[in-house]
Design goal:
This protein has 16 helices and 27 strands. By secondary structure, it is α/β, with parallel strands linked by helices. Helix 2 packs across helix 3, helix 3 crosses helix 7 and helix 8 crosses helix 9.
Amino acid sequence: MSSAATTQDRPAFFDISARVAEHGRLRPSGEAVVFEGQRINWRTLNARANRLANLLLSRGLEPNKDKVAILASPSAAYVEIFLGVLRAGCCLVPLSPMASTDQLINMIRDAGAKALFISSDYRSLAGVFPNDLAPMALGKAVAIDFAATDWASYEELMNKASDKPVDVPITPEMDFNIIYSSGTTSEPKGIVHDHAARTANLDLMASLGYGHGCRTLLATPLYSNLTIAAFLPTMGLGGTIVLMRKFDTVAYLDLAESEHITHTMLVPVQYERLLADTSFSGRDLSSFQLKSCTSAPLRTTIKREIVERWPGKLLEIYGMTEGGGLCMLDATANRDKLDTVGKPAFGAEYRILDDDGNELPQRQIGEIACRGRVMMKGYHNRPAATAAIIWRDATGKEFFKTGDMGYFDSDGFLHLSDRKKDMVISGGFNIYATDLEEVLLSHPDVIDAAVVAVPSAEWGETPFGFVVLRAGATPSRDELKGWANSRLGKAQRIFGIDILESLPRSAIGKVLKRELRDAYRRAPT
């Protein structure tokens, strides 16, 4: 087939949905998705995406306006819904089941979702949703993989929908997704990306070997931006996605061998568990070309072990869901810089700022700010929060403040220090200490509270609380922990609580969290 035939039908803006349609036309029998015994080719995937798009449009959803929410575990259907929503010109709202029910309700309402798809894993979470929440366009919330009286059937709806191509022009400024970060229960922050940002990111990742011939194993949930960052270039550039419903070390290694995986994106705790698996050394992992790690710093010792024991390049990626630029460390090629997160990549620009927003010189620690080709449009319905993250240089260029502290060394490598926002990164998920502290302080017997990150063999980090009780109060540590965790999302739950007479504070009243972390480490186990 000539190159002219390959590209002649491409629109001026070649979005991800259009790329998937092209793969369906040019390599219809090529493998697109592998999931639990299912092998879906590009022809079938493209037709299923058409059905989903036609279903939404036939029920009155409007391109460049309406939102579609999904609360589901990874599956082939999730991929179809993801691509079909985009093809209809609608905005995808992937929800985290680690959030509490109240948080999920707030997210769906904040997004204004007109349709809601749910898998059986999270049916119980949705069972207490108000009846008026999101299903108005399809009549009922849609059950992806189960049957129930008060739910619409995904397969029945899909079978009735047309698989004809959808004529919805996709333009760069249209909303692509809203991804909700860990926020307070009343005001979760929705990060909005447009098609321009997502498509730019896809093209950037082509230089890392994503595309026709790559086989990407995804073992993290599809509502997470770190998964989407590997999912999109694989799909958009014509590779094969191999999905896991839930991460398991033996199952992961089995798939890596049998599916001849070339690419993967994992969080630090997954690397640690894989390396600790007794069967790891005997596995044939020679097909790997690129292993990526993001969402939390990867310990130097683990980086070194991966480089020594696991074939293929190891790339550590530092960035935010909001975008604003990436730093990348090729650990394989820079073994003397494993204590860093690498250098700015893909044209990203970085600045290190003091508390007043002034730029700091090399090797001085300050807040990290960055900009790049991929930047969010803003926080959905949160103009003040959007404005707060932006810093402008003397020329007026916009940078995103990360809330992380660090510095650049003389070779241009970025070193991370303490986190300005006291974020806890547990199992690859961001947990904000202030959210947990607010919950603790809402207990009638608690008059002061602080939450810090403490080491966890299972999750990398986990939140630990310190509280001060009002005079005469007698709740136990376990009672306080149970009370708080019943009000928090699964990913936020507190590992333990200690009761103190007072919290250590500075002369100006700030809680000295470093002292609390040190006290925890010194405490007998």
